[in-house]
Amino acid sequence: MIEVVSAERCIECDKCIEVCPTHVFDRGADGIPVLTRQSDCQTCFMCEAYCPVDALFVAPRTEPLPADDPQLDEAYLIERELLGSYRRKLGWGGGQLGARVAIGPELP
Ligand code: SF4
Ligand code: SF4
Predict the structure, then answer these.
(1) Where in the sequence is the signal peptide annotated (predicted)?
(2) What is the pTM of this model?
């Protein structure tokens, strides 16, 4: 479930708002997405995958984290490189290279 939007990292591109299939986000008055309908989150990770600046964290569970969970702390996530980690694992945005590149011919 989506848990964290980093206001510090967010560049207000609205990508997460556009790709979310269940319309979890609204654009806040300051441009930073707000988790207006967090309970509608399907834990699909699309928002995290599309965020170009690794500003989102989706926890790999289908219910909200307890209020005392350290993963709600942005500093904790940054220290462990968890913000945007799904995107990097996919190989998007200069992260690890995907299988297509690993086994295929050199790309132009
Ligand atoms: S994980 Fe999927 S359903 Fe949940 S907020 Fe992100 S895009 Fe929406
Ligand atoms: S995709 Fe990332 S940078 Fe763009 S609005 Fe959402 S959180 Fe901000």
Answers:
(1) none
(2) 0.86
